[in-house]
Amino acid sequence: MKNSSDKPLVGILMGSDSDWPTMKAAAEVLAEFGIASEAKVISAHRTPKDLEQYASSATGRGLRVIIAGAGGAAHLPGVTAAFTTLPVIGVPIESKSLKGLDSLLSIVQMPPGVPVATVGIGAAKNAGILAAQILAVGNERLPKALSKFKEKLAEDSRAKNKAIAP
Ligand code: RP5
Q1: CA 44 to CA 62: how far, in whole Å?
Q2: Ligand 1 centroid vs 93 CA: distance in angstroms?
Q3: What whole-number percentage of the chain has pLDDT above 70?
Q4: Could you tell me the pTM of the whole model?
């Protein structure tokens, strides 16, 4: 969803640049849907004041959804959600020591009143698609683009029958 000035509608946050190889899938799928996004490294632990500034000013700057990916003691999505009323989608990054189970549980177990919509470990593409679906509410173009995307998924799935045909 490009607006006239191409101002980003989705903010993609990550705790470190080491998260980018995972998180770039969100930016890529948003671009496929024609949705402008911005990506930033901001850490809940290393740069907490920057996070407060970013999240509390997000609505005023025109963002409509925030995707936040972090690994380990992954507080970034939850703290972001504390500072904004925008929907926040959390992406658990696969960690070396615990394979992302630590990230998943840190992100998904939010206390009542401060939700974070959590996708699977490493599932940044799904976070981007979910952001597009949120933006599609009340939008004319995006529901059609999302339907087309689902039709392609179905075609690809049916085509798999050919590969296993005896
Ligand atoms: C988290 O710590 C980041 O989200 C990242 O997944 C993890 C490791 O960070 P680096 O040591 O690579 O900077 O805050």
Answers
A1: 22
A2: 9
A3: 97
A4: 0.95
